[in-house]
Design a protein that fits this description.
Layout lengths: L20 H15 L10 E6 L5 E6 L2 H9 L8 H14 L27 H12 L1 E4 L2 E5 L16 E2 H13 L4 H14 L18 E9 L2 E12 L11 H18 L3 H4 L1 H15 L29 H17 L7 H21 L1 E3 H8 L23 H6 L5 E8 L2 E7 H9 L5 H13 L1 H4 L8 E2 L4 H8 L20 H10 L3 H12 L11 E2 L5 E2 L8 H15 L13 H13 L1 H8 L2
Antiparallel strand pairs: 1-2, 3-4, 5-6, 6-7, 8-9, 9-10, 10-11, 12-13
Helix pairs in contact: 4-20, 5-7, 5-20, 7-10, 9-10, 9-11, 10-11, 10-14, 11-21, 14-15, 14-18, 18-19, 18-20, 19-20, 21-22
The protein binds alpha-D-glucopyranose.
Organism: Eragrostis curvula
Protein name: Alkaline/neutral invertase
Enzyme class: hydrolase
Length: about 600
């Protein structure tokens, strides 16, 4: 976009995306057409009249994704009822104990069932389903997502009344596992439309392909007609978020959900759509773009993922790397081969190998590795350096020396020149297992660690977002004295029930579902009585979080997904990535050939 188009009158401090709604709605459509030739929005939204009993005639201006898809694809292949039909046939199968492969076939080998096999649905589960359904957000009459928190007594919901991309993932999975595919399909297609909005903060536009952190359905007066309103989707790309954080994880989760949708429903028509393929490529291009990076890991600012406040996770945080790796693998499965995509596929494959090597080799810590770091020489110049990142052993924190168990290990939170963030971050570690970014040995070791450190990581509510908390001077310097992130609260060592679903997928993948089953039992004891809090505080997760929202949707959905998967472990396959033989081969070939090649290829 040229500077002239930036709408200079809005600066300073105003955001183009937040000029009067009806204007930006239309403007966004026009701009999208310019930037993205596969746009569906550019074909114009369809308009319709709809009478709501007891209300005035309301005109809604809605983006009818299905009709527009036909225009975009230009053929008659898209059958409107296909999804519903597939849902009916495959949905039943998936709830009866079979996950469905990407080709629509039922998966073969089964995963070890949990100790307490099929039970009757508990009332906690019934309540969770009711609450999840109540949290559904509609756009032009169709379900498009779930609100982040739905506490009727909360008079100041801030932005928790929005649909967050990352928060919707467990909701979407729960609906998929229940055979209810429509909401997930709508979510995927509507958020895709938001992706190409021209978003600007103080005259600066972030990279094309960025997915919003959240969106809201707004009903606004229609220009020139005081009796009429229209519904519009109002996205937040971080330009309104606290701290103006960039939602790097949104696009990665979107790709992961897209694959899960196809695998679970058997409906591959969504991922095959031209606009969906283009959206996927835009995310990939943004992530794979050349920069100043020396490492294959994605370089991001602080707060660019689930931890969306300053917590000292800028640089190369594990969570982003695990999601990145997973999204690359998922996208590779879904990209349709075509002229012009060869370079992208090549870049994607190279990155997968480099990323996998880098994380497995340099992020891993266990007793042996810690001892190695403890005895590191420093200031090593040259290709032969053992201590490549110049880590000073003095930075090994004293808690870790006590904490690291003889059996077990984990991937550290972040790695930068002369800096290892030794904190244990749950989501990054769990998703490294799920995506096979961690080796099989490492994956088991992480689960060993969780078992061994149960009273630190699970205690009275699963699961600590990170361990340990930053305290005293460290808290002051690293969080900027953030009163919401005080020690053992919120992102700083708080416990988040939503993480239960990722724990369950990881445990099932490693054929150790009993660990997840135990954590689910812990959660079930109090989560409903406590009104489904967003997070818990204190070292042992004894108290409901100081500022935690109640009826937090992803706590509810995370619990439901964990329950559904533990009863039907095979269904977890829609989420995990198997170890890729080619990557493994490339890594072992490189190792066999000796350090020289690896050094030249991946490490500078
Ligand atoms: C908080 C969390 C973030 C979540 C949002 C909505 O900001 O840190 O991860 O997406 O709330 O629930």
């Amino acid at each position: 976009m040229g500077i002239a188009e930036v709408a200079l009158p809005t600066m300073p401090g105003a955001f183009v995306g937040h000029s009067p709604a009806s204007n930006w709605f239309l403007r966004a459509g026009a701009r999208r057409l310019k930037r993205n030739p596969n746009s569906v929005l550019g074909t114009r939204a369809l308009q319709g009249h709809l009478k709501i009993p007891g209300l005035r005639s309301v005109r809604r201006q809605c983006q009818r994704i299905d009709d527009l898809a036909r225009v975009t694809e230009g053929n008659g292949n898209w059958v409107k009822d296909a999804v519903n039909n597939v849902s009916q046939v495959l949905g039943d199968a998936s709830v009866q104990g079979h996950a469905v492969g990407g080709d629509g076939s039922l998966n073969g080998s089964s995963v070890k069932p949990p100790p307490h096999q099929r039970r009757k649905t508990s009332s906690v589960e019934d309540e969770a389903w009711d609450l999840l359904r109540e949290s559904v957000v509609y756009y032009c009459g169709s379900p498009v997502g779930t609100i982040a928190a739905n506490d009727p007594n909360d008079s100041d919901p801030v932005n928790y009344d929005q649909v967050f991309i990352r928060d919707f993932i467990p909701s979407g999975i729960a609906f998929l596992l229940k055979g209810e595919y429509e909401i997930v399909r709508n979510f995927i297609l509507h958020t895709l439309q938001l992706q190409s909005w021209e978003k600007t903060m103080d005259c600066h536009s972030p990279g094309q392909g960025l997915m919003p952190a959240s969106f809201k359905v707004r009903t606004i007066p229609l220009d020139g007609d005081e009796d009429a309103t229209e519904e519009v989707l109002d996205p937040d790309f971080g330009e309104a978020a606290i701290g103006r954080v960039a939602p790097v994880d949104s696009g990665l989760w979107w790709i992961i959900l897209l694959r899960a949708y196809g695998k679970c429903s058997g409906d591959l028509s969504v991922q095959e759509r031209i606009d969906v393929q283009t959206g996927m490529k835009m995310i990939l291009k943004l992530c794979l773009a050349d920069g100043f990076d020396m490492f294959p890991t994605l370089l991001v600012t602080d707060g660019s993922c689930m931890i969306d406040r300053r917590m000292g996770i800028h640089g190369h945080p594990l969570e982003i790397q695990a999601l990145f790796y997973s999204a690359l693998l998922c996208a590779r499965e879904m990209l349709t081969p075509e002229d012009g995509s060869a370079d992208l596929i090549r870049a994607l494959n190279n990155r997968l190998i480099a990323l996998s090597f880098h994380i497995r080799e340099y992020y891993w810590v266990d007793m042996n590795k810690l001892n190695e770091i403890y005895r590191y020489k420093t200031e090593e110049y040259s290709y032969d350096a053992v201590n490549k990142f110049n880590i000073y052993p003095d930075q090994i924190p004293s808690w870790l020396v006590e904490w690291i168990p003889p059996k077990g290990g984990y991937l550290i939170g972040n790695l930068q020149p002369a800096h290892m963030d030794f904190r244990f971050f749950s989501l990054g570690n769990l998703w490294s297992i799920v995506s096979s970014l961690a080796t099989t040995h490492q994956s088991h070791a992480v689960l060993d660690l969780i078992e061994c450190k149960w009273s630190d990581l699970v205690a009275e509510m699963p699961l600590k977002i990170c361990y340990p908390a930053l305290e005293n001077q460290e808290w002051k310097i690293i969080t900027g004295s953030d009163p919401k992130n005080t020690p053992w609260s919120y992102h700083n060592g708080g416990s988040w029930p939503t993480l239960l679903w990722q724990l369950t997928v990881a445990c099932i993948k490693m054929n150790r579902p009993e660990i997840a089953a135990k954590a689910i039992e812990v959660a079930e004891r109090r989560i409903s009585t406590d009104k489904w809090p967003e997070y818990y505080d204190t070292k042992r997760a004894r108290l409901i979080g100081k500022q935690a929202r109640l009826y937090q949707t992803w706590s509810i959905a995370g619990f439901l997904v964990a329950k559904l998967l533990i009863e039907n472990p095979d269904a977890a396959r829609i989420l995990w990535n198997d170890e890729d033989a080619e990557i493994l081969n490339a890594l072992s070939t490189n190792r066999k050939r000796g350090k020289k090649i690896l050094k030249k290829t991946y490490i500078v």
